[in-house]
Design a protein that fits this description.
By secondary structure, this protein is of the alpha+beta class. It has helices at 7-24, 28-36, 45-57, 76-86, 99-108, 111-122, 238-271, 285-313, 319-343, 355-365, 372-384, and strands at residues 128-131, 147-150, 155-165, 172-178, 189-195, 201-208, 214-225, 230-231, 275-276, 279-280. It has three domains: 7-122, Orthogonal Bundle (Butyryl-Coa Dehydrogenase, subunit A, domain 1); 128-231, Beta Barrel (Butyryl-CoA Dehydrogenase, subunit A, domain 2), CATH 2.40.110; 239-384, Butyryl-CoA Dehydrogenase, subunit A, domain 3, CATH 1.20.140. Helices cover 47% and strands 15% of the residues. Strands 1-4-5-8 form a four-stranded mixed β-sheet. Helix 8 (285-313) packs antiparallel against helix 9 (319-343) and helix 9 packs antiparallel against helix 10 (355-365). It binds flavin-adenine dinucleotide. Flavin-adenine dinucleotide is lined by residues 129-133, 137-140, 163-165, 209, 213, 215, 364, 367-368, 370-371, 373-374, 377.
């Protein structure tokens, strides 16, 4: 199997790599200093705006958006390099629009919704988020209980969502709710679009998460939506939602490959100059084995991510592979960043190096879009039914 990139794919990867090196990584000290002084670990509006302007000027907006909305309509393989490069920094940044909701909207919007929601979103002019998780269950979304009832004039939705990223500022929310409790995830869960400011969509709580993130708990208090708010087919919201989750999972895996590469590079640079007990750390077998194991696993991860992306581009089912790469990527990045921090000794424990920020960022990724244990369960289920792809 040929894993080499086309010239265009390599050029895009280089372009993003240079953008991250020249524009994003230089912002790390500001972001880390803010965190160390008790402020939020994020870009200021000015820093974010300047990055957006540069990205737009370089043609890095709308990379996966349809051409009719001035997007580049790039395939999954091309995007692997983009996400890997973005993963090399402790600064949380992405090129609008955020990919997973874009793919869900492209699959589900009717003509009116395409114009109203997909177009501004695809152009990077509108923001969105997704509300799936509930206090009663997140890793098992089929257990959701938020209920949507059609009442002749539209929909009335009651329930509670939690851990929703970006809910306070999103222009619209993709909301998952039960429309037929007797059918569950097989025909009983639907997707809806909720516009900002809709009465009954109440932010109950802002929840500070580790790594400077915020999520929100949302009370759905008899929220009324028009009939046109239904996204996709009635009862069939779970499939497009899973497609969306798979897109995020491969993106996370590619980002984690980038994070692993950065952590390894930081560690290699350090151990080649730090002497303890009369010898360089790079001459110690324990350190060499950390590096050897991480390089080997990173090589395997990257091949798996590219293979999974190629399958997606061929239109083949790749859900199990997306579970595999999400699990492997987040666990590998976590372990490698931890080893890099260890090799730096006390310096690795400071808020001056980007490593602790990367650790926090990777830590939450071992939970969202499905905890590692849930992905192991899904992979094992397939293996026990002899349904592991490619075997
Ligand atoms: C930073 C962050 C951002 C998020 N953003 C969003 C968002 O935008 N929208 C949204 O809807 N949700 C979001 N979430 C929620 C996230 O998807 C869920 O937290 C996640 O799916 C886990 O659900 P849970 O927290 O209910 O854990 P549970 O499902 O209760 O699981 C708890 C733990 O139990 C273990 N476990 C669970 N099932 C099994 C099993 N079958 N076998 C073995 N062990 C198991 C795992 O260790 C797991 O971590 C976000 C979460 C975080 C941390």
């Amino acid at each position: 199997m040929d894993f080499s990139l086309t010239q265009e794919q390599q050029m895009l990867r280089d372009l993003v790599g240079n953008f991250v090196r020249d524009n994003v990584i230089p912002l790390e000290p500001n972001v880390l200093a803010r965190e160390a002084s008790g402020q939020r670990k994020s870009l200021t509006a000015e820093e974010h705006g300047a990055l957006d302007d540069k990205a737009k000027a370089l043609g890095l907006y709308g990379l996966e958006s349809p051409e009719e909305f001035d997007g580049a309509n790039l395939d999954a393989v091309s995007m692997v390099g983009v996400f890997e490069e973005l993963g090399k920094t402790a600064v949380d940044y992405f090129f609008p629009p955020d990919s997973p909701n874009l793919h869900m909207l492209m699959q589900t919007c009717n003509d009116e919704q395409r114009q109203k929601y997909l177009e501004p979103y695809a152009r990077g002019e509108a923001t969105s988020c997704i509300a799936i998780s509930e206090p009663g269950g997140g890793g098992d979304p089929a257990a959701m209980t938020s209920r949507a009832i059609e009442d002749g004039n539209g929909w009335k939705i009651t329930g509670r969502k939690i851990w929703v990223s970006g809910a306070a500022n999103a222009d619209f929310v993709i909301l998952m709710a039960v429309t037929d409790p007797s059918k569950g995830s097989r025909g009983g869960i639907s997707a809806f679009i909720v516009e900002k400011g809709t009465p009954g969509f109440n932010i109950a709580r802002e929840i500070p998460m580790i790594g400077g993130r915020k999520t929100y708990e949302i009370a759905l208090d008899d929220m009324k939506l028009p009939g046109g708010a239904l996204l996709g087919e009635l009862g069939n919201g779970f499939g497009p939602m899973q497609l969306r989750l798979s897109r995020r999972r491969i993106e996370m895996a590619a980002r984690c490959a980038g994070t692993t590469r950065r952590a390894l590079d930081e560690m290699k640079g350090w151990v080649k100059q730090r002497k303890t007990f009369g010898a360089l750390l790079s001459d110690r077998q324990s350190i060499q084995w950390w590096i050897a194991d991480a390089e080997m696993q990173l090589h395997a991860l990257r091949l798996m991510v590219y293979n999974t992306a190629a399958k997606i581009d061929r239109g083949e089912q790749a859900r199990t592979e997306c579970s595999m790469v999400k699990l492997m990527g987040t666990e590998l990045a976590w372990d490698t960043v931890d080893k890099a921090m260890q090799s730096f000794g006390a310096m690795g424990m400071t808020q001056e190096l980007p490593l602790q920020a990367m650790a926090n960022h990777v830590r939450v990724q071992r939970i969202y879009e499905g905890p590692s244990e849930v992905h192991r369960m899904l992979i094992a289920r397939h293996a026990l039914q002899d349904r592991i792809p490619g075997l």
